[in-house]
Amino acid sequence: MRVVSIVGNRPQFVKAAPLSRALRARATETLVHTGQHYDPELADLFFDELDIPEPDHALGVGPGSPLAQLAEMLRGLEPILADDPPDAVLVYGDTTTTLAGALVAAKTGVRLAHVEAGLRSFDRSMPEEQNRVTTDHLSDLLFCPTDAAVANLAREGVTEGVHRVGDVMFDAHLLFAQVAATRPGPERWGFAGGEYLLVTVHRAAATDSRAALLDLVAVLEALDAPALFPVHPRTRHRLAAEGLWERVERVPGLTLSPPIGYLDFTRALVEARAVLTDSGGVQKEAFFAGVPCLTLRRETEWVETVDAGFNRLVAMDAAAVRAALSDLTLPQRRPDLYGDGDAAGATADILVGGVR
Predict the structure, then answer these.
(1) Where residue 8 sits, what CATH number does that domain have?
(2) Of the listed 33, 37, 114, 202, which one is catalytic?
(3) What confidence tens digit (pLDDT) does each residue in 261-292 have?
(4) Contact yes or no for 162/142 (Cβ under 8 A)
């Protein structure tokens, strides 16, 4: 059988690393890279260091609004699926790339499989929530990382083709942890282990208005320890466009860097005092590493990390961040939330068996 896997951004590359290996041991995979993340630091580097096969198709969509990117993706994906239909299309997560793959699969009549199905923030204003809900309701096979995700789907009447397999990002963490440990440590940025904070910000809600950017700058200025901030290209562009970049550069103790690869990021994360992020994937990566996470949002789709006491929702609120940083105590026990490290194998088995 043949599966077309569609990826386009950093978290999807990480998830594809273990799952592509598992799929290629059982079936023929055609890999499509939409180009949603088009900077080399956000794309090429990940393919190289995670040993992901070269894409069979690179759409090269590049920058643009989500709707403009979606339109380009639909145009690029249609002939790939319509001219030589595969047995299944595999999409990941909740991005514009996810939605584009889901829509083209549905319109061309190809079976659709969704990795990370069932996640909900219950905020329909979020582009990610719109993408994941639409994709789930178009999917034939829904691969859920947690019991909560299965329950979310059931509440929406989706019960057919639902499988609780665990989290492929946990697979990736186990697969690459030892390699990441060999990378240069935080001293490359002038930090000692355990003394610094790690910051990531990229979502539209945090970057697409001046008010949101001012809140971000206030949070950076409120940090009580040296911090490393690998800056997403869109975040840097928006800060510069609003005349705020120089203010960020003047924040005492803040080290700014371009985006860094998965292995270097993992090494930086495991030695951080805490991570502050608006990323869904980084919330989980912090949990895997046993590092306190302050999520710069009012909601999260990874509610189990909050319930377990490893993640706090502080929003983009300087006072809340300052208060949370004063007490970063974690529970002594870290529960097994995301499976046994073989979500990729279970997903591949079900996908191949379910399509035959």
Answers:
(1) 3.40.50.2000
(2) 202
(3) 899 999 999 999 999 999 999 999 999 999 99
(4) yes
